[in-house]
Amino acid sequence: MQRFANPGRFMRLSDGLMPWCAAGAVICLAVGLYLVLFVAPPDYQQGEAVRIMFVHVPAAWMASFVYGFLALASAVALIWRHPLADIAAQAAAPLGAGFTLLCLITGSLWGEPMWGTWWVWDARLTSVLVLFFLYVGYIALVNGFDDPTRGARAGAVLALVGVVNLPIIKFSVDWWNTLHQPASVFRLGGPTIDKSMLVPLLIMAIAFMLYFAALLMLRMRTAILASRVRAARLGEIEPMPEPSARPQAAGSVT
Amino acid sequence: MDALTHYLAMGGYARFVWPAYGIAVLVLGVMAVQSYRAWRRQHRLWSALEAARPQRRR
After folding, report:
1. What is this structure's pTM?
2. Model ipTM?
3. What pLDDT was estimated at residue A236?
4. Residues of A numbered 80-99 whose beta carbons fall under 8 angstroms of chain B's beta carbons: which are they?
5. A105: which chain B residues are within 8 Å (Cβ-Cβ)?
C-alpha cells in the first residue's frame, strides 16, 4: 500500500489506469442507458416512473461509498500523515457532494408521483440531506484556513466524526418507520428485485463507480500537478540560499 | 411517430422521468467539465514553467 502511495508513482500508475476507467464508464453508461430506457420493463405498480430508480439508486450508493472513501482517506491522513491521503480525500469530496445532490433531486422527482410529495422529513431522506451538508461542510472547512495543512487536518476530523451518519443512512429504513422503502438489493436473503431490473441497475452502478474512479484520478493528478507548480514557483521567486551563507546563526548559539 | 410520442410520454410520468435523467446528465457533466478544466489550467501553468526552466539554469 505504502509503495503505491507516493505521488510520483501515483502519477505513473494513474496515467495508465485513468483512460481504462473512463472508457469502461462510457461503455457501461451506454449499455446501461440502453437497457434502462428501452429494455427494462415498467413496474407493475409504479409503471414507467420506476425508471427514475436507475439513476437514483446508483447515485445513492455512490453518495455513501464516496463518503466512506473520504473518511478512510482522512483516517490515513491523520494517522500516517500520508501525502496522497489528503489529496485523495479533497479530490473525492466534491464528487461525493455531486452524487448526493443527484440522489436527493431524483428522489424528489420520484417521490412526487409515487408518494404524493416532493419531500418528507423521514429518517432516510433527512440522513441523506445531512450527508450532503457533511460534504459541503468538509469542503468549506478545508478551504477555510490560510494554512492548507490545518484546513486538511480540520476537514479530516469532521469527515471522521461524520462517519456515524453512514450506518444511520443504511439502517434508517429498518430502525424507523419511514416513507422510504427498505433495502431491496443489499439485504439478508438476497435481492427482492427482479433480474430484468437488477441487471440494468447493477450495470448503471458499475458505470457510476468507474466514472467516479476516473474523475477521482484526474482530480488527484490535478492536485499533485498544482503542488509541483507551487513548488517550482517558490523556487523561482526565492532561490535557496547558498549552504555557506547559513550556519552563522547556529554557530552563535554554542 | 405515434410509437415515439407514446414512448416519450413514459406512461404519463414524462415530467418526472425525463427531468431525472436530465439532472443526472447535468450533474455528471458538470463534475467532468469542472475536473477537466482544473487539470487543463494546472497543465498549462506547468508547461509554461517547464518552458522557462532552461533559461534559469546557470
Report:
1. 0.90
2. 0.90
3. 73
4. 94-95, 98-99
5. 20, 23, 27
